[in-house]
Amino acid sequence: MPESSEPPPVSGPDPAELPQDRSQAILEAAKQIGALLKRAGHPFALAGSVAVYAHGGSRYLQHDADFAILPEDAEAVAATLREAGLGVRLPPEDWLIKTTCHGQNVDIIFSLAHQPVTREMLDRAHVLPVDSVLMPVLSPTDLIQSLISAFSEHYCDFGSVLPVARAVREKVDWDAVRAACGAEPMPAAFLFLLERLNVIDAQEGQP
């Protein structure tokens, strides 16, 4: 019998090891970076949409993975990423560094809503499983406060934060959020919207 002229199959990664979709790829990136930061002993907390997922929110992730670190640890974290073979990019913004993992962007942030990340904020983080990997995750109150505090006349995307507020509303100290940013026009407008939609209770003394 003549030998087959077809080339032998090319071996490749096990399909079971490949991310099934964009959301899974983002989770894989978050897990790898989180494990790396844990092993290196850097104080940190998962932030952004993956943090919302860890607190029980939607698994539909279409952005990057975000981590909060202390400002004074930025250079040490960058060195840890480089030692792990990950490239580090310094964007024009002076409040984060960027890397790429599993083809997904990862933002390492040391200032949330124009306020430096503090040790107290990281101490309030909840240790939660992120797709089976335990890591510190920003508390729901700090997470919501950072999102709402970012609203301004130039950026006011209520639609992206509304589902987040719905997902974690029972875990948030809304009085603390109001005290921190409720005096500003755009955060106040968003809080009023949440009240009108019955996502949160109206502030005492208000109709």
TrEMBL record:
This is Nucleotidyltransferase family protein. It comes from Streptomyces eurythermus. SUPFAM superfamilies: Nucleotidyltransferase. InterPro entries: NT_sf. Gene3D superfamilies: 3.30.460.40.
